[in-house]
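Listing S7. Sequence submitted for prediction.
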Amino acid sequence: MSSPTQPEFDLESRHRGWQSLAKLFGATSPPFGITHFLRGYEFSSNIYAMSGLSLAMVDPGNDYTAFIELAKLGMKPAETTKVILTHGHHDNAMGIFELLRSYPNQAQGFQLLLHEAGPREFRDVGNESNCTVTLLRGGERIELAGVEWEVIHTPGHTVDGICLYHAPSKTLITGDTVLPRDLAAPDPSAGGRLDYYLLSIKELLKREVENILPGRGPVVASIGRQVMEQTYENLMMKAIGAEEKITWINGATQLAAKGLLEEAVFCCHKQLAVTPGDWKTLQLKSVCLNDLGRFQEALDAIEEITSRRGQGQETAPFTLIGKGYALMGLGRYDESVQWFDQALKLDPNSREARLYKGMALYLAGKYDEAMEIGDFQAEFVRRFKDEMLSQRKTQ
């Protein structure tokens, strides 16, 4: 699927040591004013150190020199009170061992927070040390250095992936779930799955995100949503097995055939931005929306198609059936019957139109009229028998 050119958003060059987010983002409000960032390289992830009411770290990485340099900034690794893992890959998490080995806190160990599906080894080392281990599920509100974050469970790259969202600043800490210039593919050995990954990105897209603090690569200012959408697009390409860029409508068609309806709708929106009013795209979009139960959106798309009558585009029976189905889904049964009747005038042999007309009449309480439609009566009896057999089997 063709994508817009990515704007430049690299706010810092590689290997510049710990950097203040306040300088990178030009903002001192939380969380920027209290956070320093060390960009990872080779076998270590990015590390985020937050120094406010206390010292907290997100992903301690896998670089023993990181904490030596952090101490030079006046932040003492031995005084770390919280460490949270976005997931259990070693490049993100092995710094836990370095903190415990080289910077033991004699008075009180830090709190280790990770998803409950995370690797056992990190829970064990926390429990065996002077640490408090907190297992997360997603949905929690946690405080890091005096700033509150929402925990979002985002399986896909791994089963234990989490992101942290700070709504006031529209900032998302993503681990490897969303990366600015790459896609962290699902890792089956860590429970990663493509279908979970797609669901996770859809969940993130429900939030208003401008800034991204990723587990790899540069931090992202202002265009966070574009980066999340690019991840979503890359995952869809992976889902349909496309090795080269294809058009949005072709992508939508393939995704719909695989049952990935929300992803197909996303591609339809992209195609319509390129070719507004394209009736084939609107038709596919309406079908997917109807199947998703998003009937008002489906009706809006179909009405855009029917409005093109008289512009060289005849309204097909398929479109009329779709409109009737959307109206039926909205509880407007009498109206829906009218559209099924119009479809039957154009195609008297349409079994689909007859079935849906019978369903609309039945839902409207017109049982006798519904049962006069042979196809509906036969389908009704068949489903009734199937239900009775199913109940007998469970008894």
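Caption to Listing S7: primary sequence and predicted structure tokens for the chain studied. The first strand starts at residue 19 and ends at 20. The first helix runs from residue 21 to 25.
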